[in-house]
Protein backbone atom coordinates (compact mmCIF):
# COMPACT_ATOMS: atom_id res chain seq x y z
CA UNK A 1 0.00 0.00 0.00
CA UNK A 2 1.39 3.40 -0.97
CA UNK A 3 1.63 6.13 1.67
CA UNK A 4 -0.87 8.99 1.42
CA UNK A 5 0.78 12.13 -0.06
CA UNK A 6 1.11 15.13 2.24
CA UNK A 7 -0.85 18.33 1.63
CA UNK A 8 2.44 20.10 0.80
CA UNK A 9 3.41 17.48 -1.80
CA UNK A 10 -0.08 17.67 -3.28
CA UNK A 11 0.22 21.48 -3.48
CA UNK A 12 3.59 21.13 -5.28
CA UNK A 13 2.05 18.72 -7.75
CA UNK A 14 -0.97 20.97 -8.41
CA UNK A 15 1.22 24.09 -8.77
CA UNK A 16 3.44 22.31 -11.29
CA UNK A 17 0.38 21.23 -13.28
CA UNK A 18 -0.99 24.80 -13.27
CA UNK A 19 2.30 26.26 -14.51
CA UNK A 20 2.61 23.58 -17.20
CA UNK A 21 -1.03 23.95 -18.31
CA UNK A 22 -0.66 27.73 -18.50
CA UNK A 23 2.47 27.34 -20.62
CA UNK A 24 0.70 24.99 -23.05
CA UNK A 25 -2.27 27.36 -23.28
CA UNK A 26 0.02 30.27 -24.21
CA UNK A 27 1.80 28.19 -26.86
CA UNK A 28 -1.52 26.96 -28.25
CA UNK A 29 -2.72 30.56 -28.62
CA UNK A 30 0.39 31.63 -30.54
CA UNK A 31 -0.25 33.15 -33.94
CA UNK A 32 1.58 35.19 -36.50
CA UNK A 33 2.38 38.62 -35.06
CA UNK A 34 0.77 41.67 -36.71
CA UNK A 35 2.78 43.57 -39.32
CA UNK A 36 2.34 46.83 -37.40
CA UNK A 37 2.07 47.64 -33.73
CA UNK A 38 -1.44 48.45 -32.49
CA UNK A 39 -2.25 52.18 -32.63
CA UNK A 40 -2.65 52.40 -28.84
CA UNK A 41 0.86 51.08 -28.16
CA UNK A 42 3.46 53.52 -26.97
CA UNK A 43 6.69 53.64 -25.05
CA UNK A 44 6.93 51.58 -21.89
CA UNK A 45 8.81 52.78 -18.82
CA UNK A 46 11.60 50.71 -17.31
CA UNK A 47 9.34 49.98 -14.33
CA UNK A 48 6.35 48.74 -16.36
CA UNK A 49 3.98 51.20 -14.68
CA UNK A 50 1.81 51.18 -17.83
CA UNK A 51 1.24 47.43 -17.57
CA UNK A 52 -1.59 46.52 -15.18
CA UNK A 53 -0.69 43.91 -12.59
CA UNK A 54 -3.44 41.56 -11.35
CA UNK A 55 -2.94 42.42 -7.67
CA UNK A 56 -1.72 45.53 -5.81
CA UNK A 57 2.04 46.10 -6.03
CA UNK A 58 3.99 47.09 -2.93
CA UNK A 59 7.61 48.21 -2.69
CA UNK A 60 10.48 47.49 -0.33
CA UNK A 61 13.59 49.67 -0.18
CA UNK A 62 16.86 47.94 -1.12
CA UNK A 63 20.50 48.93 -1.26
CA UNK A 64 23.20 47.09 -3.18
CA UNK A 65 26.75 48.22 -3.94
CA UNK A 66 25.94 51.69 -2.59
CA UNK A 67 22.90 52.13 -4.85
CA UNK A 68 19.36 52.57 -3.58
CA UNK A 69 16.42 50.89 -5.23
CA UNK A 70 12.97 49.45 -4.69
CA UNK A 71 11.89 45.85 -5.03
CA UNK A 72 8.30 45.47 -6.20
CA UNK A 73 6.22 42.60 -4.89
CA UNK A 74 2.65 41.37 -4.71
CA UNK A 75 1.43 40.10 -1.33
CA UNK A 76 -1.80 38.26 -2.03
CA UNK A 77 -4.00 37.14 0.85
CA UNK A 78 -5.88 33.84 0.74
CA UNK A 79 -9.27 34.18 -0.96
CA UNK A 80 -10.73 31.10 0.62
CA UNK A 81 -10.22 29.72 4.10
CA UNK A 82 -6.62 30.53 5.07
CA UNK A 83 -4.44 27.47 5.68
CA UNK A 84 -1.73 29.46 7.50
CA UNK A 85 0.92 28.75 4.87
CA UNK A 86 2.82 31.14 2.61
CA UNK A 87 4.15 30.39 -0.87
CA UNK A 88 6.81 32.62 -2.44
CA UNK A 89 7.00 32.43 -6.25
CA UNK A 90 10.30 33.20 -8.04
CA UNK A 91 10.23 34.17 -11.70
CA UNK A 92 13.10 33.43 -14.05
CA UNK A 93 15.25 35.70 -16.17
CA UNK A 94 13.41 37.95 -18.65
CA UNK A 95 10.17 37.51 -16.74
CA UNK A 96 8.36 39.25 -13.91
CA UNK A 97 5.91 38.21 -11.21
CA UNK A 98 2.95 39.14 -13.42
CA UNK A 99 3.55 35.89 -15.33
CA UNK A 100 2.33 33.93 -12.31
CA UNK A 101 -1.18 35.39 -12.48
CA UNK A 102 -3.08 32.07 -12.89
CA UNK A 103 -0.86 30.35 -10.30
CA UNK A 104 -1.33 33.18 -7.78
CA UNK A 105 -5.10 32.93 -8.19
CA UNK A 106 -5.14 29.14 -7.78
CA UNK A 107 -2.90 29.18 -4.70
CA UNK A 108 -4.83 32.04 -3.11
CA UNK A 109 -8.12 30.23 -3.70
CA UNK A 110 -6.56 27.14 -2.06
CA UNK A 111 -5.93 29.15 1.12
CA UNK A 112 -2.28 30.16 0.66
CA UNK A 113 -0.83 33.60 1.21
CA UNK A 114 1.22 34.26 -1.94
CA UNK A 115 4.31 36.49 -2.13
CA UNK A 116 5.56 37.32 -5.61
CA UNK A 117 8.62 39.56 -5.85
CA UNK A 118 9.84 41.18 -9.05
CA UNK A 119 13.54 40.72 -8.44
CA UNK A 120 15.76 43.79 -8.77
CA UNK A 121 16.30 44.44 -12.47
CA UNK A 122 12.94 42.98 -13.56
CA UNK A 123 9.29 44.00 -13.79
CA UNK A 124 8.34 46.95 -11.63
CA UNK A 125 11.51 46.78 -9.51
CA UNK A 126 14.41 49.22 -9.88
CA UNK A 127 16.94 48.60 -12.63
CA UNK A 128 20.18 49.24 -10.76
CA UNK A 129 23.57 49.47 -12.46
CA UNK A 130 25.15 46.71 -10.35
CA UNK A 131 26.63 43.23 -10.88
CA UNK A 132 23.55 41.02 -10.45
CA UNK A 133 23.79 37.56 -8.90
CA UNK A 134 21.56 35.03 -7.16
CA UNK A 135 22.82 35.94 -3.69
CA UNK A 136 21.46 39.48 -4.13
CA UNK A 137 18.10 37.93 -4.96
CA UNK A 138 18.36 35.61 -1.94
CA UNK A 139 19.20 38.54 0.34
CA UNK A 140 16.30 40.61 -1.02
CA UNK A 141 13.97 37.63 -0.59
CA UNK A 142 15.08 37.18 3.03
CA UNK A 143 14.53 40.89 3.64
CA UNK A 144 11.09 40.70 2.01
CA UNK A 145 10.04 37.80 4.24
CA UNK A 146 11.15 39.79 7.29
CA UNK A 147 9.53 42.97 5.92
CA UNK A 148 6.11 41.30 5.67
CA UNK A 149 6.50 39.26 8.87
CA UNK A 150 6.75 35.77 7.39
CA UNK A 151 9.01 33.31 9.23
CA UNK A 152 8.60 30.31 6.93
CA UNK A 153 7.60 30.09 3.30
CA UNK A 154 7.43 27.42 0.67
CA UNK A 155 9.57 28.52 -2.29
CA UNK A 156 8.51 27.73 -5.88
CA UNK A 157 10.79 28.73 -8.73
CA UNK A 158 10.07 28.81 -12.45
CA UNK A 159 12.84 28.51 -15.05
CA UNK A 160 15.90 30.36 -13.69
CA UNK A 161 13.82 31.23 -10.64
CA UNK A 162 14.36 27.68 -9.43
CA UNK A 163 18.06 28.52 -9.09
CA UNK A 164 17.11 31.42 -6.84
CA UNK A 165 15.83 28.82 -4.38
CA UNK A 166 19.25 27.24 -3.94
CA UNK A 167 21.10 30.13 -2.24
CA UNK A 168 18.04 30.67 -0.06
CA UNK A 169 18.05 27.04 1.08
CA UNK A 170 21.78 27.32 1.80
CA UNK A 171 21.93 30.84 3.26
CA UNK A 172 18.47 31.13 4.79
CA UNK A 173 17.28 27.69 5.93
CA UNK A 174 15.12 29.18 8.70
CA UNK A 175 12.97 31.00 6.14
CA UNK A 176 12.39 28.25 3.64
CA UNK A 177 10.72 24.90 3.45
CA UNK A 178 11.48 22.67 0.46
CA UNK A 179 8.38 22.91 -1.68
CA UNK A 180 9.38 22.13 -5.20
CA UNK A 181 9.81 23.69 -8.55
CA UNK A 182 8.12 23.91 -11.88
CA UNK A 183 11.00 21.72 -13.06
CA UNK A 184 11.73 18.20 -11.88
CA UNK A 185 14.54 18.96 -9.41
CA UNK A 186 12.59 18.47 -6.17
CA UNK A 187 13.66 17.55 -3.55
CA UNK A 188 17.25 18.75 -3.23
List the helices and strands and how they pair.
Layout: H1 7-28, E1 58-64, E2 67-76, E3 86-90, H2 101-109, E4 113-118, H3 134-147, E5 153-157, H4 161-171, E6 176-181
Parallel strand pairs: 3-4, 3-5, 5-6
Antiparallel strand pairs: 1-2, 2-4
Task: Write up what this structure looks like.
- This protein is of the alpha/beta class and 188 residues long.
- Helices cover 30% and strands 21% of the residues.
- Strands 1-2-4-3-5-6 form a six-stranded mixed β-sheet, with helices on both faces.
- Strand 1 (58-64) and strand 2 (67-76) form a beta hairpin.
- Helix 1 packs antiparallel against helix 2 (101-109).
- The longest helix has 22 residues, at 7-28.
Distance between the termini: 26 Å
Given the structure, what is the number of helices?
4
Taking all Cα atoms into account, the compactness measure Rg is 17 Å
The count of strands amounts to 6
What structural class results from the helix and strand content?
alpha/beta
What composes the largest sheet? 6 strands, mixed
Q: Mean pLDDT across all residues, rounded?
A: 77
Estimate the helix proportion, in percent: 25-40%
Q: Strand sequence of the main sheet, in spatial order?
A: 1-2-4-3-5-6
Overall form:
globular
Q: What amount of the residues lies in strands?
A: 15-25%
Q: Low-confidence stretches at least 5 residues in length (pLDDT < 50)?
A: 175-188
- Elements, N to C (H/E): HEEEHEHEHE
Quick recap:
The protein is of the alpha/beta class and 188 residues long. It is built from four helices and six strands. Helix 1 packs antiparallel against helix 2 and helix 3 crosses helix 4.
Amino acid sequence: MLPRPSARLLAVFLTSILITATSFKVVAQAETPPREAPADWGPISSTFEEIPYPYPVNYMETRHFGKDGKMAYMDVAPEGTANGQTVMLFHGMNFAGIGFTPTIKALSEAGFRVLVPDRIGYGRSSKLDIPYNLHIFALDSKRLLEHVGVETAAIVGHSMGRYGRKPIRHDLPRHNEPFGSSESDWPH
